[in-house]
Write a structure and sequence with these properties.
By secondary structure, this protein is an alpha/beta fold. The chain folds into two domains: 210 residues, Rossmann fold (3-Layer(aba) Sandwich); 55 residues, no CATH class. The protein is 39% helix and 19% strand. It contains eight helices and eight strands. The chain has an eight-stranded mixed β-sheet with strand order 1-2-4-3-5-6-7-8, sandwiched between helices. Helix 6 links the parallel strand 5 and strand 6. Helix 2 packs across helix 4 and helix 5 packs across helix 6.
Length: 272
């Protein structure tokens, strides 16, 4: 398998991305954009990207945290790994800034300041969330253009698969990129209902139960998709959020296996 890091341009910025493709592929390949969780392109996302390549796709995972070519000091892989360990040990910190401050109060200096700076950079203020996600979506739109221009994908289709935060971006990408041929959402928030009419590709959703931040919003999204004549297939698994991530305590092999099989069948049908 061919793997490595490449760069492409998006809105005048250099975006690093991990790529993988089958060895010796000569015919134009269909392509899959893998959109990462909060933690960025790390071991798990690299592995998922390679799984898509093993299934016969050219796969690309843009690092949304590295516009310009490199991550800022606050969100290097090492710093993000430390934040992930902190959040795993303090799950209540996911609920918002005040909960994170309470959890940080028990951490000694200078680690407290380091963690606080990393989380501030990655979570950002709630009032700026729409603008941040719009920028992330533009970065991924650049990945679609990059793949469609490549010598091994120019004549084939491009789909996206996103996880958690990346799942939400996959939905937004489906609203804004007419060249996208398929979108798969793993436990990501649905796009605003007033944008459903703009979706031009079929969407497959995998959701967790319980997942009170995400799953309760899916019925309204499904109804809106149906009302606008859009194709939306979704499944709810008796598993926690992030059940597909086999590097996390939330991993559930039964749900992950079923979701993976459905994803491959969906992409085979839509990207052929």
């Amino acid at each position: 398998m061919q793997t490595g890091w490449v760069e492409y341009q998006s809105a005048g910025e250099v975006i690093p991305a991990f790529f993988a493709q089958p060895p010796g592929a000569r015919a134009p390949l269909p392509a899959v954009i893998v959109i990462h969780e909060l933690y960025g392109v790390e071991q798990h996302i690299e592995d998922v990207t390679c799984r898509f390549a093993a299934a016969g796709y050219k796969a690309l995972a843009p690092d949304l945290w590295s516009p310009g070519g490199a991550r800022p000091e606050e969100i290097t892989r090492e710093r993000v790994a430390a934040m992930r360990a902190f959040l795993t040990a303090n799950p209540s910190a996911w609920s918002g800034p005040e909960a994170r401050e309470r959890a940080l109060a028990a951490v000694g200096e200078p680690e407290r300041q380091r963690l606080a700076a990393t989380m501030a950079r990655m979570f950002g203020p709630d009032e700026g969330r729409a603008q941040r996600f719009a920028r992330y979506t533009e970065i991924v739109r650049g990945a679609v253009a990059h793949l469609r221009a490549g010598p091994n994908t120019a004549a084939r289709k491009v789909g996206s698969v996103g996880f958690c935060m990346g799942g939400g971006i996959a939905g937004l990408l489906a609203c804004s990129e007419p060249a996208l041929s398929a979108a798969v959402v793993f436990y990501g928030a649905p796009p605003p209902l007033d944008r459903v009419a703009a979706i031009t590709c079929p969407v497959l959703g995998h959701y967790a139960d319980p997942d009170p931040r995400i799953t309760p919003g899916i019925p309204a999204f499904a109804e809106a998709m149906h009302a606008h004549g859009k194709r939306f297939e979704h499944h709810v698994y008796g598993a926690p959020h992030a059940f597909f991530n086999d590097t996390a305590g939330s991993y559930r092999p039964d749900g992950a296996r079923a979701a993976w099989a459905r994803t491959l069948a969906f992409l085979l049908a839509e990207l052929a």
